Amino acid sequence: MDILDYFYDLKPVPNPFYPRKLQLPEEGSFYLHGPRSSGKTALILHWLQAFTPESWLYLDAQDPAFALEDIDTALLEGFLKEEGISLLVIDHWYEGFLERLPRVSRLVLVGRTPLPPSLSLPSFELFPLDYEEFLGFDRSSAPVQAFNRFIKLGTLPPLALETPASALLRMREFFYATFDDQESRLLLILARFQGRRITAHQIYTTAREYFRISKDWTYATLKRFEEEKLIYLLPDLEKGPGKKLILYDFIFTRYLNKYQPFPATFDAMVALALLKHQRPFAVAGSLGYRLEDRNELILPSPFEGEDQFWKRAQQLYPKFVKTEVGKVWVVTVSNRYRFSLGTIEFEAIPFYEWSILNE
User: Fold this and answer.
1) What's the CA gap between 326 and 335, in Å, rounded?
2) Measured between alpha carbons, how far is 33 from 38 in angstroms, rounded to an integer?
3) What's the Rg (C-alpha) of the chain?
4) Gap between the Cα atoms of 190 and 180, Å rounded
């Protein structure tokens, strides 16, 4: 059987599928991108179910068949015309998969990194789950139960459907199936620096203590990881070398670094929520994150009670004043309280409420 016939007859469906916030257009061509295991394939396969099966062809550029057999674009165009196919989807697309893009009524490309400058298509980005999306995956009804599962399972859709007991095995399978040996080793090093200010040179010098690695490869891979949004390097308002490192899923990071303290995990949860909701912000050193669209700070503090935080706020008050904010949101696991110091209001709110209000 010809490879194109094989894919035309395949017609894969997502099972199971849970709704995502991102809405894909019903008309026109477009490009969908996002990091590994963010749910792109499930989303695009669900989207395809709205069209008649005969009208579309789904190609998976990562299929082993393409390791030995290239597709000629002219032959692909002939196949599309012969079968009356108006919609072509190429999943796991990368530059060089075809010598040129085929001529077809609708073309949908799905990749990891933002749209290359050589292409001109409307672009859509899919992140791993935010907390509200996780609630759609979760079978718990009580907010506290759901949040406890979120803390244990993280934001990657394939793992959000697991039980906490089975998630560890699935995370291991995900790690070794998704990243090659060199990438895996580098990620182990990066997990050590989660939530810390770091430079590319520091990462390289640490990595070479454990395995053979070139400086050029390290710098290039860090750039690729950042483009794919597997990692975020966040600038800090406080002067100093390096940027704050956040990996794209907090449970993935804890799997790689068993010694990561929970406050570091919680800090990453807050930063990732801001990033997914596309709130403009900057790191404000030990004071958390300063929102750029309003005079507010977001300060992760998972367990501090009101009395304990009151004392810390008094000690840090001069620093708070320098940030020129009028309000500090203290994001907690479950604590609530509110007080004012001078001209600044402090309000503590549980993460599971703040994350939804933050959108």
Assistant:
1) 21
2) 9
3) 23
4) 15
Round to whole Å and give the CA distance between 90 and 108.
6
| CA distance readout (Å), 167 to 140, 149, 250, 264 | 16, 11, 14, 21
Q: CA 59 to CA 46: how far, in whole Å?
A: 15
Give CB contacts under 8 A, 24+ apart, made by 192-195.
192/257, 193/245, 194/245, 194/246, 194/247, 194/253, 194/257, 194/260, 194/264, 194/265, 194/268, 195/244, 195/245, 195/246, 195/264, 195/267, 195/268
CA distance 259 to 23: 38
Amino acid at position 152, single letter = K
What does each of the 359 residues of the chain score in pLDDT, given as a tens digit? 489 999 999 999 887 788 899 999 999 999 999 999 999 999 999 999 999 999 999 999 999 989 888 889 999 999 999 999 999 999 999 999 999 999 999 999 999 999 988 889 999 999 999 999 999 887 666 778 889 999 999 999 989 888 888 888 899 999 999 999 999 999 999 999 999 999 999 999 999 999 999 999 999 999 999 999 999 999 999 988 999 999 999 999 999 999 999 999 999 999 999 999 999 999 999 999 999 988 999 999 999 999 999 999 999 999 999 999 999 999 999 999 999 999 999 999 999 999 988 77
* CA 38/CA 44 separation, integer angstroms: 12
